Amino acid sequence: MPVHAPPLELQVQPLPLRVNDLDHADTDADGNGNGNDHDDGDGDNDRDNDNVDTDPLLDLHPLDTSFDVARVPDHLHADHPYPQSLIDDAIMRSTRTNDPNIDRNHEAHFRTSPIHSLSLSTLKNLFLNRKHQAAINLLRSRSQLLVNHEFTLTLNSHDVVPSVRHHYIDFTLYLGARVGLDALLPSPRVLVDHTWHVNLTFSRLFKSWKESHLSLPFSTTGRMLCLGDRGQEEIWLAFVPSTLLDTPDALPDMTPLSITTTTSCLTPEHAYMAVMFFAFLLSEMHFQDVSYRLKYPHPISANAVRQSTELLGRLDENHRSFQLTLAQTRDLDRHIRAHWDAWVHDAPESWKRDGFLTQNSPVALTVRYGQNQPICHSHRPEHLQEESNAWDRDRDYSHLRLAAFSLAHHLSFREVVNWENLSGPALHRFHGDLYDLPVDDPARTLVDLNRLQDGHEIPVYTRDGYRVRRRIPTLDGYIESGALMDLTKVDALFPPDDNGRNTHHAYPLGFTKLYGNVQANRTIVSFDKGLNDINVKLMPPLLPRPANLNEEDEGDDQMDDLENEDEDEHALNLNQVRHGMPVLHGIYCQMYNAIAHRVREQARFHYVQLGLATSVLCGTKADTPSCKRRFQRRKEHCDNGLPHERYARTVRGDDQPQALRVEQTYVLDVHRLRPRHRNGRTIYEEVVSKLCKQFIHPRTLDPILTCVKPFKPEVIPNLLNWTTYPLTSLIELVWNQHKRAGIRLGQAIDPYHVEFMSMLERCLNYAHTGSGKVLCKKLMLPHYMCLGIIHDGFPCLNQQVVPFMQLSMKVLHVETKFWARCPEDDRPLMGSKRVQELTYGKAYAQRSEACFIITDTIDNPPPMSLTSYYSSNVPKQDMSNMSIDIMDRVLKVAMKIYIEDVKSLVSKAVMTELAPIFINGTRQEKDTARTRKFELKTWLKSDNPLSYEDQFLNLLSAVSPARHDNNPIPFSFQIPNGGRRPLSFFVQSILDGAHKRRAPPFIQDGMFQHIMAAALDQMKEITWRQQQRRTPYVMATVGNVFMDDDDTSGNNMFRASLTRVVGKMKVNHVPWSESRTAEEERRPGRPSSRIVHTTWLPLGEAERERTQTGSNGGMVRVRLNPPQTRQTELVMSSQRIAHDDPRTSWSACRHRLSDFHKVLHKRSLPTEWNLSHVSNTPFSKSVYEWVKANYDPTSNPLHAIAMFIALIYTGLTPKVFAPTTLNTSKHWSSVELADFYAMMAWTERKNKRGAKQLEPFVTMASGFIIAVLDKHSPLCDKVGTDSDDVKMFLDKHTAKGITLTNTILRFRLAKPFGKRVAKGPRWNQNTTPATAEEIKRMWDRIKHHLMTNKEYGAYDAVVELAGEHTAMLLLENEWVRTRGHIDSNAAITMSNTLGQGNGDRHASTSKRRLDDSDGLGEGEESSDDDDLIVLPQGHTVLSMPSTNRRRIS
User: Fold this and answer.
1) What does the pLDDT look like over 130-144, one tens digit per residue?
2) Which residues contact 717 (CB under 8 A, 6 or more apart)?
3) What is the separation of C-alpha 128 from the centre of its chain, rounded to a whole number of angstroms?
4) Do 1218 and 1301 meet the contact criterion of CB atoms below 8 Å apart?
5) Which long-range contacts (CB under 8 A, 24 or more apart) does 861-864 make?
6) How confident is the model at residue 48 (pLDDT cuts 50, 70, 90)?
7) Distance of alpha carbon 1013 from alpha carbon 990, whole angstroms
8) Is the pLDDT of residue 843 over 90?
9) Is residue 772 within 8 Å of residue 83, measured between CB atoms?
10) Which are the contacts of 560, defined by CB distance < 8 A and separation ≥ 6?
């Protein structure tokens, strides 16, 4: 018989860790072992995320956190998840069938449903035979999965042997004990190492520290700064409380910083202070070209730092990195320690005011994740010695506070077929004396192996208690397989803590409910004895230290002498010496199958966990380039294989890794070790290797073996494929249904199908992780998915929601009336919102949610009409009752979302104000803050939070800051400019702004604007259908029925419906944007539209009397009570005062052309004139900057007429384009050509983006005319040339319809001549600009009309300038006013004015025929100040002051 090394139990002997690994001694000596248990890669290319695409399809967390088998991606975090403790309870209830509480969470129908047994063999056969429909039918009823015995191994069998073959170190963290970089430096014995270098960079100043189960001895909030890396190891600088450094044995100091930040990053000010400190150090070291101009720039900011030093990047560099050698790093460490105190002392008081620099000190911290390096792998002494030397060289432990590390052990099982017996002498030769009982049994005795009977099954043990096997399998005589944890038994491994709280969580896999993974916030209880043995040897004794001895000199020798006394026969046993607290702590454990590393590389997520099918179905409405790219990328990814198909391909094949991986994390208090033990050799030999060895001791391993479930070799890799097959078959059915219809951009996908797919993918994720975080409790409860998973372990479907009749025809149909809804506001719940936010952005997710809510609201009307209790005065002839009911219901849901937006705004703002008070405030301030918090909670619970009736005082108290008793200012809110507004103003602001740029009342980051936009779109379609059924024709403006101000019946009804809903909800005031001061009003640019919680717009209660909506559109008048009249007069007086000053700003869109005569004296540009609307090219900017600097309409007629034409463009939007085809004749004269261009029709081009925005035309039209025609402009001399700058300038304006033809020729600012002009104007070739005298005469006539006829003069001026067709379009858009019909014979063409100099033509001002019964009487004068009067106009209904006070016959 060949001689083999006698094995221990699990093939490990006491001194060399692995004498024989059930294989021969040299089989795995190279450290490779099973080829599937390999390192997952170093991930160096993934560590720097600066250039990584932010697409969530990519893994954004490659190596910046420890591997967590229960982690789920942010995409699938549920809004209302199941707590993992509930899953733990459900697992344990599986062992107590008579538990009266087993069904306490079941709905009645679910409880009465029968439970069927489902065998794993059935699922396997369905998967292998690809029986999709049969698998889907299994979801019709409740099922409990039973694992057949044919798939498992029996531990009691003598032929099933556990094997521990590999140990790994997977995580390390080092924290220094003093100021400097001690955590980074290698042992002092390493004098030179040309391969050692550090990458120092300041490009990650605001990278967040990843919190984990490891708790550092200080609060990380606002203290962590990433400095770079060394290979796979991250380097951090922690600004720890100085108290931790002043006292060697100080307890953890968790005192938070006196700042309001909630992240681990330094505040910008503190981060830039740290940068300047390193600039000072590197300059002192004369390192490369680093220097600084100012040692302490003030005020501290990024720009100030860049101006003081080039540490953040030199010229044209975004960031900069430095490579430091070992010698340079040690030099930097010495400089940090030598200069920190002096540098802080010399810092200005403004830097030290918050105490950050004076109360904290920079200490290095290094961390390495996911290395998964084999350790204690070889049994050969020379290999063990080499590994010990490597640990000794790697780190200088003499000045470390703590070292944390994770050790992983792989436990597998071998089903042995052929055994080989070992001889007794060989066992004695390798192990010495052997015993019949474990070491803990006092009755154990020596064993004579020669007297044992054949069979060799009687266990024998070494002196230290390790079991020795007396036979080994032959080389090819076994089959290796893996295991999962038996979740019903793991309580024995992790007992409750001192308070009786559970210390672990179970994560069932594959819907088995009973088998899976475990995580615990402590190590396995059977490790306690081994940890205690290590601590007894390493803990320093509690002996008084001689006062005259230094710790690192003579004191060390005395303590070493004490330690060596145990070798003397007269010395005390170490166990009899009093020791302090333990130095080694076990803090965390997770037990999972190693196949997780096969499909989830290190900390990554595999595709099954990302909800990719959901992200494709919900992304068809992507409207931005980045979102479109993400959609296309995901669609192509899923077209090439759905996530579960890719998983199946990954685990396909033999020899897949399936060992049970037991991973435990430890913390070693290095600063409390004896000085002679603070080195890598001791830590490796006395801590790391002994912990690996401890795992195979029977005292540790036997309890683990009782809690595991070993499986046959092919089971674990395919377990998830088999058990999830019904679910994946249904996913394929839904995917293929939409794939047949076409999944493409612009394709409408049923939102219920999207949400159903989201639920399926969440269930699939649960099968892979067992984490309750992915289960949306409120959403999935009515579908029975959660109920089946939690209580039975296997999902099922509610046939009321998803009828299986349609599924049998491969069609998904959802009964929407049974969909889960939020009980507070009755809106449908979503499961895909998180996926949409992280994939396509928050705004996209909000739009999708809004469309889903409106669709659900319309598809599922309430049983009782809302109108019946809103109002009895509802017009019935304009819309059907059903349309009114739907409209009211939709708007009620929308307004509830608006109220939620308001609550969120106020709650976040108030709590942000209170946070620093709770930390640093005085006792009185904290009491006041607690009162405000209580008042806030009370207001949030009110039924009508925007009312003056319900808890208004609570809101006032919550928002108002703390005050002194002698403060004479009463509690109040700020009121925006203009003061109190009617309710109709709030309603109209909602209707006007739903599809525009966000402005009050729409709250930033809120849902209300998206929900209103979706509601308007849906109701436009409903109204259009009603119009078709009611009239034989469809009005041309019906597409904009809710967007325009024309008083169509649909618009009135929508306004009336919204008014009813708002009134029912008692909306008396709403938050608004801050008021602008007089100085801010004079500043150029758009005022801030950001809504704040301290400014509220009152909506007067008199609105109900002022807003009257009759069935036939009767008289509507605005009545103002005396206080309101006085307030109105004050506002108008202040406006007149500001109006009289020619330097104050004015609004082109507010004054329009009808009030243009009021701003003729203004020398300033309107508020809408903004350079942000023009091209970003340098030439275009220079042109417009010249226009802005030289604009002078009072003395330059060209500038005045340019602004007038710009307002014409603004009023015509979106019809601002010339016809695409111009039919001219080459026989026409110049006058005929001029008339033709002036009378061109105005058209709309829907493919032109931005043609509906008003503000850009104010800037671009006026700037274009001035730039082209003003001889002093930078553009004038270049027009008509081949300059690229001119072409780019003209192209930008062409997109807005602002061209030489459509602007210059149309408005007669130039004269065409010659036959070739019909093919296109050529500047100074067939087109001649008007002279200054001609432009002056033109402006004089326009001004004459404006000043003579006041608000009606603009119409006359437009007729004379651009024809009656232009004026009529402006009249339709309410940009001009008229007294009546135009006498076409009185219209004057500007062609008679240009070039003739006839000043008498202005006497032929066009006449008007007054047929308005409510018009001006004889002898009455027109007034500019009568805009507060609202008169009836036919069947038109107006609910607010109108600017159009005349009716056209």
Assistant:
1) 999 999 999 999 999
2) 595, 651, 656, 658
3) 41
4) yes
5) 861/885, 861/886, 861/889, 862/889
6) very low
7) 10
8) no
9) yes
10) 674, 676
